[in-house]
Design goal:
Structural class: alpha/beta
Helix content: 25-40%
Mean pLDDT: 87
Radius of gyration: 29 Å
Shape: globular
Largest sheet: 7 strands, parallel
Strand content: 15-25%
Distance between the termini: 51 Å
Number of strands: 30
Strand order of the largest sheet: 11-12-10-13-14-9-15
Oligomer: single chain
Bound molecules: adenosine-5'-diphosphate, zinc ion
């Protein structure tokens, strides 16, 4: 027999099929050790075949199988080719995505333990052998037991019992269970009429993809879980994707209670061994639901009946390492392969997704009401310019202070949200709310302290730093924001007896940083939670009745065409944390720009209004989804070499530009906005194109081979730094 092998080397030079001879027992999808050049490397068996075109004497043999099962299933093998072609990366890189990284490094393996049980006549034990009798009694009471425990408890009593045949031992494979002690209460609800309709229409539509657009608290989770449970009952499997931050302790225990061991939950808090075992359970079929952040889209389940992407708008669904895949693209490939449905859920869908639903490519299901028609929280807009004029320099307006006092007095909890993204670099006038923007691109400018100038990250234009506001002449220009730490400090002065938790990048490092904070808050160990973006995600804290958004407009001015969309999403999501249980919730939204359309739409919970406004603006300015931003990045530690590489790539790209110049709205090479990250110099060629025609050739033009320089292509990158 012969087999076609892709070697596990991430280089385009060896990204091809190599034929090897092999013995029986080798099957497609297996990892094998093969001689390659003058060394031995791992490869993936893509296909078996009876013959090879190579001269027989040149064909080498597979040395051995690396595992005793095919690590990659048939579906994933079939998709490898497509994904590699889509993202123009070596197939080895795609194949790696299907395996837990622990497996490649060979650092974890399966765990075996030995168990003992009674198997013979207990009366054979001598009455004087006290510990032997005790051991047998223990087994009679507890059933089969790990021998390690028995040896600890009863010293050497086990061995003679085994010799007499009273007790039998057996070595067996065990799985590390990451959720020991996670006891969940089953909170299965009877679906409401609205939820029921959603389930039926998702199952019955003839479209593969459904966008489930439901306001915060409309019970989307219950819909996903019902859809999944119904597929399991049909003998199928499911994939349930959530942003990492949503795998809260409440969520984990709910899933655990509902699905028990048939769910494998993959999250960053697992040890390497636990992750490997969860993966194995999925591969073997003992676990049938894969739940996790974006990489769980590659879970080794077969015969998939349902794929769910919760909070589909979340930025974490785009990978930032090669291959730079988009989770939705992969999920769609898998849904089509399996002939199953794909559900995208969100209270604030991305503009692109909503447009595809509007145009009929996706089915659209809308939930307009919260469960039990609980009202959406009331929003009070506070004009912070007026607070400054009144001489209130603190980050809290009078209105927020009053409501916070009332909330704490009534024994409820509050969340204070700081919209810090991009704050420190954007210039804003604290008297009138003016923000410095690029004349050509209509995106906020970024302050670069080393050159003391303002720059546009989209076109590279430089502007002088302002000394006074061009709009009102005021001189309170500010580009340094208030941090969470400072807010907590001020809060402590105002409310000395309140218990305050802080959640941001500084406090959530470590394995389970954010989980710990969320757990403490949900267990009422704090009264106020102060945080950045992380507090906005889908948490369900029933006692929260007040949400304060300290600086609502700040993310509007982040230098990115998606900043309006992100702001709308953030405000809607964070406001949605308020008043989820019996008591009515409130939201205080502080801003320097109270007339802003985006904020108004968010306060009115008017997604459609926001969408119409935004999609028109995108069409008028030719930004995605009406055009595509493509960035070719060149980065390397050797500046000379990186520049040489950039020149080569740029020359190639110029040829593409010349050929398709009508398709280009923008074409420019420049320093990346952040010129050096981790000692790597960064250069970029930035393009904006309409239609997909030049894309293939752009990827080809970006192929350049230098020793210390990396070149990659990003489409609509979520971050332009
Ligand atoms: P969403 O994901 O849409 O924001 P959730 O799924 O978190 O909403 O649901 C909001 C709350 O409503 C949760 O506390 C959930 O337990 C509860 N809930 C969901 N469905 C029902 C139902 N059919 N009956 C009663 N309560 C429900
Ligand atoms: Zn510009």
């Amino acid at each position: 027999m012969y087999c076609e092998v892709i070697v596990d080397v991430a280089h385009s030079d060896v990204d091809k099929i190599f034929d090897y001879a092999c013995d029986d027992g080798i099957v497609a999808g297996m990892r094998v050790a093969v001689p390659f050049g003058n060394r031995v490397t791992t490869g993936f068996v893509m296909r078996l075949k009876p013959e090879t075109d190579l001269p027989k004497e040149k064909v080498k043999r597979v040395l051995r199988a690396e595992d005793d099962f095919p690590a990659v299933n048939a579906e994933c093998l079939a998709l490898t080719e497509k994904i590699a072609a889509r993202y123009r990366c070596p197939k080895a890189l795609v194949l790696r995505l299907f395996l837990p990284s622990e497996m490649r490094t060979g650092k974890v393996g399966e765990v075996y333990r030995t168990f003992a049980r009674i198997s013979g006549d207990v009366s054979l034990i001598s009455p004087r052998a006290k510990s032997q009798r005790a051991l047998v009694e223990f087994l009679a009471e507890n059933g089969e037991t790990d021998t390690a425990l028995l040896n600890r408890k009863f010293g050497g009593a086990l061995k003679p019992l085994v010799e007499k045949g009273v007790v039998t031992i057996e070595k067996r494979r065990v799985f590390r269970d990451p959720y020991r002690g996670v006891a969940g209460e089953v909170s299965e609800h009877r679906l409401t009429e609205e939820q029921n309709c959603a389930v039926v229409s998702i199952e019955e539509t003839d479209k593969t993809v459904t966008l489930l657009h439901g306001v915060t608290g409309s019970g989307k989770t219950e819909i996903y879980l019902t859809l999944i449970a119904r597929q399991l009952a049909l003998g199928k499997t499911a994939i349930f994707l959530v942003p990492e931050i949503s795998l809260t302790p409440q969520m984990l225990s709910q899933l655990r209670a509902r699905f028990g061991a048939s769910a494998a939950i993959l999250h960053s808090g697992l040890s390497a061994g636990e992750r490997f075992d969860e993966w194995r359970r999925l591969r073997e079929g003992t676990a049938r639901i894969a739940i996790g952040a974006r990489s769980a889209v590659f879970a080794p389940v077969e015969n998939i009946g349902m794929i769910v992407i919760d909070e589909e708008h979340d930025g974490s669904y785009s990978s930032e390492t090669s291959p730079r895949y988009n989770t939705f693209d992969i999920a769609l490939l898998r849904a089509k392969y399996n002939g199953c449905k794909l559900v995208l859920g969100s209270a604030t869908p991305s503009v692109e997704t909503y447009r595809r639903a509007q145009q009929g490519e996706f089915s659209l299901v809308t939930l307009r009401n919260r469960i039990n028609r609980r009202p959406m929280p009331d929003v009070t807009i506070v004009d912070m310019r007026r607070e400054v004029r009144r001489g209130n320099p603190s980050p809290f307006s009078n209105a927020l202070r009053e409501k916070l006092t009332a909330c704490l007095n009534s024994g409820n909890q509050a969340i204070l949200f700081l919209n810090r993204r991009g704050y420190s670099q954007t210039v804003i006038c604290r008297d009138c709310g003016y923000v410095a923007k690029c004349e050509h691109c209509d995106v906020a400018l970024t302050y670069h302290s080393e050159e003391d100038c303002l720059k546009c990250h989209y076109c590279g234009t430089k502007y002088h730093m302002l000394s006074a506001c061009p709009s009102c002449g005021g001189t309170h220009l500010s580009y340094v924001g208030t941090g969470t730490q400072k807010v907590v400090g001020e809060l402590k002065k105002l409310y000395p007896s309140a218990r305050i938790l802080r959640m941001d990048n500084d406090t959530t490092s470590g394995k389970e940083g954010h989980l710990n904070i969320l757990k403490q808050f949900s267990e009422r160990k704090a009264d106020i939670l102060v945080g950045t973006q992380m507090v906005a995600k889908g948490h369900d804290f029933p006692l929260v009745t007040l949400v304060g958004i300290l600086d609502a407009d700040m993310s509007l001015h982040f230098p990115d065409y998606r900043s309006r969309e992100r702001t709308f999403q953030l405000i809607t999501q964070v406001a949605g944390r308020s008043g989820r249980a019996q008591e009515r919730g409130e939201v205080v939204l502080q801003t320097y720009d109270p007339e802003n359309f985006i904020l108004r739409f968010a306060c009115d919970y008017d997604y459609e209004g926001f969408y119409d406004y935004e999609v028109n603006l995108r069409a008028a300015t030719a930004f995605p989804p009406f055009a595509k931003i493509v960035r070719v990045m060149v980065t390397g530690t050797d500046e000379r070499e990186a520049i040489d590489c950039l020149k080569e790539v740029y020359t190639n790209l110029e040829a593409v530009y010349a050929k398709y110049s009508d398709d280009f709205l923008f074409f420019h090479k420049m320093h990346a906005p952040i010129k050096r990250i981790q000692n790597k110099f960064r250069y970029q060629v930035l393009m904006r194109i309409t239609g997909g025609r030049p894309l293939k050739e752009i990827y080809a033009a970006a192929e350049a081979h230098y020793k210390n320089t990396l070149v990659y292509v990003e489409e609509n990158p979520s971050n332009l730094s």
